[in-house]
Amino acid sequence: MSDPKRKSMLFDEWPEEYDRWFETPMGALVKKYEEELLLDLLKPLPGEFILDAGCGTGVFTFDLLSRDTKVTGLDISLPMLKRAGQKARGFRFERVLGDMLHLPFPEGSFDRVMSVTALEFIADAQTAFGELFRVTKRKGFIVVGTLNSLSPWAARRKRNAREKQSIFEKAIFRSPDELRSLAPVEGVIRTAIHFQKEDSTEVAGEIEREGRRRRLDTGAFVVGCWKKI
Questions:
Q1: Number of structural domains in the chain
Q2: Which end of the chain, N or C, is less surrounded by CB atoms within 10 Å?
Q3: Quick one: CA dihedral 81, 222, 160, 124, positive or negative?
Q4: pLDDT tens digits, one per residue of 29-88
Q5: How far apart are CA 203 and CA 26, in angstroms?
Q6: Pairwise CA distance, residues 82 & 197, whole Å
Q7: pLDDT of residue 20
Q8: What is the pLDDT of residue 16?
Q9: Which residues pair with 186 in a beta bridge?
Q10: Using CA atoms in the order 52, 58, 60, 61, what is the torsion angle rounded to 10 degrees?
Q11: Per-residue pLDDT reduced to its tens digit, 136-192
Q12: What is the pLDDT, as a whole number, of residue 144?
């Protein structure tokens, strides 16, 4: 999907539904493990300038702001950005309406760059990666989290999308190897969310620990981390 207006319309009516998912018991558990993995790889430091590309409603942005960083949140949807701004009141947070394929920032603007579940809606992922690397300072880190095509979650989301015409009907799921191939340098690839949606929250933690111990590549959330040379 390359038309910015069409992409914006896809998300404009989704902010409340998106946030509600993370307020459910399963959604909260998913967020917990996803943010643990993201922060473990990104390692944001106080005072750093960080770009959250495709920040949405700011679900993961606040994790950065709470570490005394300065965050620019970019998104293609104005309703999403407005909701993110409401959550980030009182913090050093700048909102920018824009497209990840054409980031409106000079080269080397940010110490670290993060993008979470935005790549699914970008067909030209190679260009998006080029932009993320371009705006990162030398020796800075780029962390990208996306939905894993190898996970049963992906198949269910696609099936449900066809039945209910949800946002995931337009999504492009990628495997760890596909994510790895998009970056111009070698990086680290890890996955999280090894449990399934139907699992109880009581057993999900044990399943997650076992999946990480075995370094399975089938977790529903795949994250890559790269250092700009």
A1: 1
A2: C
A3: positive
A4: 999 999 999 999 999 999 999 999 999 999 999 999 999 999 999 999 999 999 999 989
A5: 12
A6: 30
A7: 87
A8: 74
A9: none
A10: 50
A11: 999 999 999 999 999 999 988 888 877 776 678 778 999 999 999 999 999 999 999
A12: 98
Residue 174, domain CATH? 3.40.50.150
C-alpha distances out from residue 139 to 49, 134, 157, 227, Å:
14, 12, 37, 6
Name the pairing type of β-strands 221-227 and 136-147: antiparallel
227: pLDDT strictly greater than 80: yes
Q: What is the mean pLDDT of residues 94-98?
A: 97
3-state secondary structure of 223: strand
State the Cα angle at 146 between 120 and 198, rounded to 5°. Answer: 100
Alpha-carbon distance of 147 to 165, in angstroms, equals 18
Q: What is the 3-state secondary structure (H, E, C) of 151-211?
A: CHHHHHHHHHHHHHCCHHHHCCCECHHHHHHHCCCCCEEEEECCCCCCCCHHHHHHHHHHH
**Amino acid found at 56:** G
- Could you give the count of Cα atoms lying within 13 Å of 204 in the half-sphere of its Cβ? 20
Query: In the chain, where does DSSP find H-type helix?
Result: 4-12, 15-23, 25-42, 61-65, 78-87, 125-134, 152-164, 176-182, 201-213
Task: Compute the distance between CA of residue 67 and CA of residue 215 in angstroms, rounded to an integer.
Answer: 28
How far apart, in whole angstroms, are the C-alpha atoms of residue 180 and residue 197? 26
In the β-sheet with 221-227, what is the strand arrangement from edge to edge?
93-97, 70-75, 49-53, 110-116, 136-147, 221-227, 188-192
Kindly tell me if the per-residue pLDDT of 1 is higher than 60.
Answer: no
